[in-house]
Amino acid sequence: MIRSALMNVMTAAALKAGRGLKRDFGEVENLQVSVKGPGDFVTAADKRAEKTLFEELSKARPGYGFVMEEGGIVEGSDKSHRWLIDPLDGTSNFLHGLPVFAISVGLEREDRLVAGLVYNPATDDMFVAELGQGAYYNNRRMRVAARRSLGESMIACGIPPLARARDHESFKRELAAGMGKIANIRRMGAAALDLAMVACGRFDGYWERGINSWDVAAGIVLVREAGGFVSDFSGGADMLAKGEICAGNETIHRQLLDLMRKA
User: Residue 245's beta-bridge partner residues?
Assistant: First the structure.
């Protein structure tokens, strides 16, 4: 496990926020739900978790900036650091009582992602990584899977919801291309966990477009520190700006990119 001061701060904040989510998940039918758009909901639990993360991280690292799903951008006095936070990735799963959701906390230093944490309060699964320190799942070192063919791989993807109808046609082309090459395709509904599963070798790869920076910032660090490759669909490093991501070991990543380009 990573014992750095930074990871201690991130872990403590996530565990505190997670306690609230775990409590609310047990009473999901009583949550007050507001509608942000078609198929895109935000809960009171979401907002409470983000508030906890913001307060705890601000107290531990004064001056750091924030990019948050609900709270937006908060400029800090320290312009070289900012947190990228999703307090509840997989909100729809949460609302439907599915225990597949996570807190995602990434740290950017001088525009470079240097630390990531993904935590599922429902299962107490904790995935952490720090630049140069490796990636860990519940205190065990993680490595990406070693499979070398899409034909024997299980690949995760993201299906655009109703709110992103503009992406439906491109996804249909990608899915059709993938179904002709990939052994198994899965949709979990939480991008942070998709990337964590790639990092620990449960999924062999993952692709999605129309994704937000706070959804994938932490997971990018996890995959890289677990020996994997992450890029945008062009093979570049503009995942956060372009809102698209492709991940896997070196071989699977390359094969997935080739599939996306031809779709």
Answer: 208
Task: Answer yes or no: are the C-beta atoms of 243 and 210 closer than 8 Å.
Answer: yes
**Percent with pLDDT over 90 in the chain:** 86
Contact 51, 94 (CB under 8 A): no
pLDDT of residue 28: 78
Mean pLDDT in residue range 81-98: 94
Sign of CA dihedral 101, 241, 246, 139: negative
Are 245 and 162 in contact, with CB atoms under 8 Å apart? no
Using one digit for the tens of pLDDT, what is the confidence trace for 170-185?
999 999 999 999 999 9
SS (H, E, C) 132-168: CCEEEECCEECCCCCCCCHHHCEEEECCCCHHHHHHH
Q: How far apart are CA 226 and CA 144, in angstroms?
A: 6
Contact (Cβ atoms closer than 8 angstroms) between residue 19 and residue 45: no
DSSP per residue, 164-217: GGGGHHHHHHHHHHHHTT-SEEE--S-HHHHHHHHHTTSSSEEEEES--HHHHH
As given in the structure block, the two tokens for residue 120 are 């599922």
Instruction: Give the C-alpha separation, 225 to 130, whole Å.
Output: 7
Mean pLDDT value across residues 132-161: 97
Q: Which candidate, 83, 214, 57, 59, places its Cα nearest to that of 74?
A: 83
b/e map of 232-244 (b: 16 or more CB within 10 Å)?
Answer: bbeeeeebbebbb
